[in-house]
Amino acid sequence: MARMTIQQIADLAGVNKATVSRVINGNSNISEKTRLRVEEIMKKHNYVPNSIARGLAFNKTFTVGFCFDYTDKQAYANPFFYKVLQGIEEIVYNHDYLFLMMSDHDNKKRQSTFERIVVEHRVDGLIIPNTLLNEQNYELLVKHNMPFVVTGENMLPKEGVQWVDIDNVQAGQILSDRLIELGHRNIMIYAGAAAVKRDKFIADRIKGYTNTMMRSKLNVTVIENADVLKTLNRNRLEDEHNDNRHYPDALICCTHEQLFEILDWEYGNPILSELTLATFDNFPMSQYMKYPVHFVEIDLEMMGRQAAQMLFSLMNKDEGIPKSISILTKIGN
Amino acid sequence: MARMTIQQIADLAGVNKATVSRVINGNSNISEKTRLRVEEIMKKHNYVPNSIARGLAFNKTFTVGFCFDYTDKQAYANPFFYKVLQGIEEIVYNHDYLFLMMSDHDNKKRQSTFERIVVEHRVDGLIIPNTLLNEQNYELLVKHNMPFVVTGENMLPKEGVQWVDIDNVQAGQILSDRLIELGHRNIMIYAGAAAVKRDKFIADRIKGYTNTMMRSKLNVTVIENADVLKTLNRNRLEDEHNDNRHYPDALICCTHEQLFEILDWEYGNPILSELTLATFDNFPMSQYMKYPVHFVEIDLEMMGRQAAQMLFSLMNKDEGIPKSISILTKIGN
DNA sequence: ATGAAAGCGCTAACAT
DNA sequence: ATGTTAGCGCTTTCAT
Lengths: 333, 333
Prior knowledge:
Two copies of one chain form a homodimer.
Chain A: H1 6-13, H2 17-24, H3 32-44, H4 51-58, E1 63-68, H5 73-77, H6 81-94, E2 98-103, H7 113-119, E3 125-129, H8 135-143, E4 148-151, E5 162-166, H9 168-181, E6 187-190, H10 193-198, H11 200-215, E7 221-223, H12 226-238, E8 250-253, H13 256-266, E9 276-280, E10 293-297, H14 300-315, E11 324-327, E12 330-331
Helix pairs in contact in A: 1-2, 1-3, 6-14, 9-11
Chain B binds a DNA duplex (16 and 16 nucleotides) through residues 3, 5-7, 15-22, 24-25, 29-31, 34, 49-50, 52-59.
């Protein structure tokens, strides 16, 4: 089935193709009568404007890009990550836009797909994870004046970067609150020293934990190394008075990696049976774990929606767009 | 930074834009000298051809679509699903194509995104899951002569449908073989009756199991209802002679849903401690489960690569494209 | 309110 | 080997 062109519709309607174009684009300068006739003919012939041609004329692609960071294991390994996609999709489709996925993978050739898409202007705007917003990519985006929104807190000290992030301080707070509510008093938090330096979100989670503990007049203990935990536990086992005050009865793991590290290690160590575990964001199978894990629920779909919304505001050159949007978390079931 | 056009490059090089176009497209009818000069100028000015304009001229989009089925819980909930994406991406990017994601979600408006993309010819070809290839979508694709490849076995009795699938019969065989190798003899397989009817891949897995069991002269028992298992177990507990021959010592769950159903149910039932579990495809956290689960490894990345390769062959109108491609599985670590 | 014509950036058929 | 010209399908200015 060959596609109809605007000219064919114009001929069938006995008008100029400019008139048809006006109908398509909802131009008001047109008589009700011809508008109806043209619309009828378009419908009758299932006419759909060629979006490539429209794009050329408008200098637009009607497409936004979403960049995937495969090196960010957490991102793609987390099945809940698709929620971000769903959120983005909802907004994008409602704007009659389409949705181009890409990774920052190196191509066999010299250019990454990300670079290609920016340079070729294959999208009107871009949503990228903060892990991908380095100096180089930033320059690229600015140079090609490509509107973009970052997911996760932007750490690049540059002008004109907007982002949407989870409120990790609040998450740390409510998770600690929950553990206290459950009766725990010796709550510790586990985060690798390197990770704390590297990832602001981890520092934020610790900050939230600290806030809560201080407010509740409880001891703050940040563990930066799993070995410390082992030692603590060994001490406990050897402690004849069994004075539990110095040993954790609950442990917050800042990332899933760390949680799994603990779980792995557990197979040769009995500590877990006396320890309540907690972490951020749910994960599949959590309910089938040997020991229950408490967690905070992160509304990633909302994150996607907000990011997309922000991007459209940007492409629209709206006034008063916030620099960043923060999304609150809540305690999981 | 305003983009350069082919005309500007032509002017700078003192040639006609047709000549520049020839350089871009690697036309041989061109002198080495001017080719080098033009290339130098293009590089110097970071010239990148406008792909929308090229698309209009070529009547191509240089994009393939990948359709996501959100209603197919298995697909999106499985983090390994992203492996398929990775496989597809590898091929697509090596062809200098881009990659449009879509879902079959209903838009707020009457058209699904899938429909829109096909009707608007926003992609040159499409990869869709078999769950989405119904009569209606098939007609749509054919009507708009959009090349497409199906992932998962195609069940629609239509001409010209190509697909790539996992060899589920083989998977059932090797998984059963493994359990036998582990010393099990009373191996049963669990699959809901409705699911067997509905999903060919489940029937195939059962067939594979049956093949192996018959070859090994062992009893074939297909359980269609978890209650049967409960009964079996109750019998075992009450069986004074404790004759284990009639009770399973290993159970293959045809899907993850069923595995989890068993696991859930386990919390009020001691059967699992005496039962070896097995299922198809790995899942995250499998190593942290209370009871080990054996599984078959499915190379989803290969599946993506093959599907993409097939699609390009189709778009290329290659000769002798196979109707379908079957991917072998292997036993997980 | 409608038509005519130029132009978006590129390719390709036809000249030379 | 290179230039000329006519599209690709649509939008948009400028007439009328």
